């Protein structure tokens, strides 16, 4: 599908991979709406790129409805990370912690996807029958989550599992659904770790032995949008990393 002059939504577009995606898509001529909870950062990215910052909490239906416009490209990057054991020092993982990460990462992705798909399905197709493309952000933790990632892995596993049934269902409208499963990416989310822990983790990536740049995620998003045969799959972006 064409990017130039096409309206796009990027959730979590105020930071990290979302912000890199906003930068690339605006440079390629898309009209990008940044859906984020963090308005000051969203406005900064909008100012730098010419995008439009809209306050949106992806877990909140009303918030999505009030921000939603007609877009043919929907990129879900909003998410949080959490490292907590199923059974920690203080006993079982509080259910509220599990529910919080599921609510933002999985339900939030579903929430935006359903409204975006509904708007896209009512739009006009291009000459090849495309009405839109939805790209969700999973994680390699969906496949090989580490200790402390039970909740995070469940949230990302749900995103992986939604990809094929959503693509099958939306095929009749000419809407594609894909997911990207990044490995280790150099974003503010990752920067929260101490520098030596980051360096150690980077060494575990076979090649290239470094963290991914958020711009590399954006480049993959560009390719997925432009390549109409990509549908119903999850692409790993991880330098052959298989977390131990
Ligand atoms: P980031 O923290 O830099 O950006 C996340 C953005 O999401 C922030 O702008 C934040 O304000 C927004 N957000 C959080 N909750 C929200 C909500 N309820 N509604 C709207 N916006 C909300 O993170 P990132 O590293 O760019 O991560 C982007 C996505 O990629 C996340 O889903 C993350 O789980 C996933 N991921 C990250 C890595 C990594 O190594 N950084 C690896 C695999 C997957």
Helix/strand class: alpha/beta
Helix content: 40-55%
The whole-number mean of residue pLDDT values reads 96
Ions, cofactors, ligands: which are bound?
nicotinamide-adenine-dinucleotide
Cα shape: globular
Total strand segments: 9
Number of separate structural domains = 1
Major β-sheet profile: 7 strands, parallel
Summed up, the helix count is: 9
Q: What top-tier CATH class fits best?
A: Alpha Beta
Strands of the widest sheet, in order across it, are: 3-2-1-4-7-8-9
Descriptive terms for the model:
9 helices, two-stranded antiparallel ribbon, alpha/beta, 9 strands, Rossmann fold, binds nicotinamide-adenine-dinucleotide, seven-stranded parallel β-sheet
Question: What does it look like?
Answer:
Helix 1 (16-27) links the parallel strand 1 (7-11) and strand 2. The chain has a seven-stranded parallel sheet, with helices on both faces. The radius of gyration is 17 Å and the shape is globular. The chain has helices at residues 16-27, 39-49, 61-67, 95-121, 141-144, 150-170, 188-191, 195-203, 214-226, and strands at residues 7-11, 31-36, 52-55, 73-76, 87-88, 91-92, 132-137, 175-182, 234-237. The chain has a single domain (7-187, 213-237), classed as NAD(P)-binding Rossmann-like Domain (Rossmann fold, 3-Layer(aba) Sandwich). Helix 1 (16-27) packs across helix 9 (214-226). By secondary structure, the protein is of the alpha/beta class. It starts with 6 loop residues before the first strand and ends in a 7-residue tail after the last strand. The chain contains nine helices and nine strands.
